[in-house]
Amino acid sequence: MSHDVHHFSMGMWVFFLSYATAVMGSFVGLSCVSRSLDEPRRSGNWWLLMASLSIGGVGIWLMHFIGMMGFSVPGTPIRYDLSPTVFSVVLAVLATLVGLRIADVRSVSSRSVPEGARLLIGGVLMGVAVSLMHYSGMSAIRIRGTIEHEIGFVVASVAIGVVASTVALALARRARRFQLRVAAAFVMGCAVVALHYTGMAGVRVTLDPSLPTPDGMTVMSLLFPAFVLGIIVLAVPITALLLASDPEDTVRDARLEQWASEVERQIDRDTVRGPVM
Q1: Are residues 250 and 159 both part of a single domain?
Q2: Of 98, 187, 211, 269, which has the fewest CB atoms closer than 10 Å, so is most exposed?
Q3: How far apart are alpha carbons 227 and 38 in whole angstroms?
Q4: Looking at the 3D structure of the chain, how many domains does it have?
């Protein structure tokens, strides 16, 4: 028969930590997206790769498993199969990368596909990526029983991911200013968290006490290496963003250099002419 489940068994701090993780990963990733628009094609692709790792690996995948710390089912231990778990992170990163490439303004297809259509396609892929990551991660759960998902909540969670991802991509493409990138990150963070907990609201568990204790890893044993990898994943693009020169600073420096050269030439001309009698 159906059994009760708890989504905040460790307290509401898990919710706020998961949301903060989603926002941080999204902000770093969207900053990389914005940076890629100012770079040549080859270096721009590296920025998009770092963006997909930040958004897909940290903002989506790590947020999901932080949220799962609060998931418990009285009467059974919860374990995770490693193979579907690894598949879920690879899926999130690759699908996010594909979505970002399609939404790239310099895409080869941009001549024939309107900007709005590319944004919609990219947003749909990113939203579906969040959904597939969530449900493939859920498929890794092992309990004394079965887990099912109500179709209405599944549809609602996918719709939330698609709409918010599209909006976040649209903001990211125009996010030359820091404030807009922050706004886009909060939107994307809301998308990930809303999708996660909407999907979790549709979870239905049926226990079978006669089944043996499930094998696999606990959520804590998964999170420790995930946190370490997440820190590394974010440290690389953050360092790259800090070291990269700002295009606006480059233009400003060029204008100052030109002004200084003109002043120097004027002084030289005045020196050659000598004092006026």
Answers
A1: no
A2: 269
A3: 31
A4: 2
Structure tokens at 108: 């080869």
Q: What is the pTM of this model?
A: 0.80
Q: Which residue type, as a one-letter code, is found at position 139?
A: S
Question: 7: which 2 tokens?
Answer: 């989504």
Structural domain boundaries enclosing 96: 2-244
At 166, which helix (H) or strand (E)? helix 151-173
221's CB contacts (< 8 A; 6+ apart) are none
- From first to last of the 277 residues of the chain, give the pLDDT tens digit: 456 788 888 889 999 999 999 999 989 988 888 888 777 666 778 888 898 899 888 988 899 889 888 888 888 888 999 888 888 888 888 888 887 887 765 554 445 566 677 778 878 877 887 788 889 888 889 999 888 899 999 999 999 888 877 877 777 666 667 787 888 888 888 888 988 999 999 898 988 888 888 888 888 888 888 888 888 888 888 888 888 755 554 544 455 556 556 656 666 565 655 555 4
Distance, CA of 213 to chain centre: 35
